[in-house]
Amino acid sequence: MKIWLDGELVDETQAKISVFDHGLLYGDGVFEGLRFYNRRVFRLEEHIDRLFASAKAILLKMSWSREDVCRHVLETIRANDLDDGYVRLVVTRGTGGLGLNPHLCEKPSMFIIASTITLYPEECYREGMAVATCATRRPAPGALMPQVKSLNYLNNVMAKVEAIQAGAMEGVMLNEQGYVAECTGDNLFLIRDGVLCTPPVSDGALDGITRRVILELADQLDVPVREASLTRYDIFTADECFLTGSAAEVIPVASLDGREIGNACPGPFSERFLAAFRELTQTSGTPID
Ligand code: PMP
User: Fold this and answer.
1) Per its UniProt record, what SUPFAM superfamilies does this chain match (predicted)?
2) CA 243 – ligand 1 centroid, Å
């Protein structure tokens, strides 16, 4: 596998980062996860815009233009000769001293991995997935801004462990007020009385690109949308629930904490959104060639 690292495509065995990199020492950096389908990258510019916004929010000065980064993503996919897959794009603060001060880091490092991915087994998409509520909370916006897709994922990792220990594949994370924020790596939607509901980003959700796509599709499918705070009660009593993410795509949720959601999984709305999403991924995007 070829990895793009600081301007060069190198073999994965040669793709190495310093132990003094602040991305490793402090989780000081930002990242993106993108998908490509049929040799086209889905929502490339939106991902790169979010990367630059995340970098700006943490005062990380990018050494590359948006156009450069887009070009390097395409180069990496081409170098690995893949038609469909996943791209992980990471920008770290770079090599510095052992202290926290990011101004002492020389320059950021960027690496791009293009690979295949199967996040959840296929039957989850057909029959729905079990999710569990995690004890670990989303940090308050005053602690770690939820919009910033930073390398600081330890609270999500701990929450994921709790979900797995509860026998689920994904975990629902609440914010400090007890409202649903999102899942450990996905945004959450539910359907109640024909209305698509999702927590606002201000409740601690990442401004997911797939979340945005679902909101656009809701408009096209004439499904009314309500962005409002949700509790576990709202999920327990919803007609349908599904999760979204670049890696997970659109995945129906069968149960929360062992309690079945709605009557059938996937429900009719989830199926419509999943089909419309798949159609879009197969027919749009930035060509790789
Ligand atoms: N929430 C979190 C915490 C995530 O890490 C992700 C991305 N894996 C998402 C939501 C979904 O975002 P996107 O649709 O942009 O991939």
Assistant:
1) D-aminoacid aminotransferase-like PLP-dependent enzymes
2) 10
